[in-house]
């Protein structure tokens, strides 16, 4: 879900950047002193603010994603460690059970 959100934010970021570029080109074509030029300049300023906000949002999401990846990696390492311990303990238990059975057989032979 987080990856989809990051991808969506990146797509929005590209769309806003594209809009800023388009508006800049329009502004160059318009007369700088005209009302239309001021509207375009205002639109550019708004689009640039939206672009910065999306950039910050994307940075935050990427930071959170990195934290989640680090947490998942640490959890995976701990799981691997615990699995190795489980295997070791299972082998130790099996060894002890074999020793116990051998002792029981000897005890039975000794009483026979």
Mean pLDDT: 84
Q: What summary fits the major beta sheet?
A: none
Helix and strand composition category: mainly alpha
Q: How many helices?
A: 2
Taken from the alpha-carbon principal axes, the silhouette is rod-shaped
* Regions with little confidence, pLDDT below 50 for 5+ residues: none
Could you tell me the radius of gyration in angstroms?
A: 34 Å
Percentage of helical residues? over 70%
N→C terminal distance = 70 Å
Strand tally is: 0
Determine the strand fraction and express it as a percent band: under 5%
Order of helices and strands: HH
What can be said about this structure in brief?
The chain has helices spanning 2-29, 35-111. It is mostly helical.
Q: Could you give the topology of this structure?
A:
Elements: H1 2-29, H2 35-111
Structure description:
This protein has 112 residues and is an all-alpha fold. It has helices spanning 2-29, 35-111. The longest helix has 77 residues, at 35-111. The mean pLDDT is 84.
């Amino acid at each position: 879900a987080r990856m989809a959100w990051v991808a969506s934010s990146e797509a929005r970021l590209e769309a806003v950047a594209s809009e800023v570029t388009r508006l800049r080109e329009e502004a160059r074509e318009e007369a700088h002193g005209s009302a239309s030029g001021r509207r375009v300049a205002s639109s550019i300023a708004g689009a640039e603010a939206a672009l910065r906000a999306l950039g910050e949002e994307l940075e935050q999401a990427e930071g959170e994603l990195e934290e989640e990846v680090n947490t998942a990696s640490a959890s995976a390492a701990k799981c691997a460690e615990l699995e190795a311990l489980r295997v070791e303990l299972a082998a130790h238990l099996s060894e002890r059970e074999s020793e116990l059975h051998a002792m029981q057989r000897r005890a039975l032979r000794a009483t026979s």
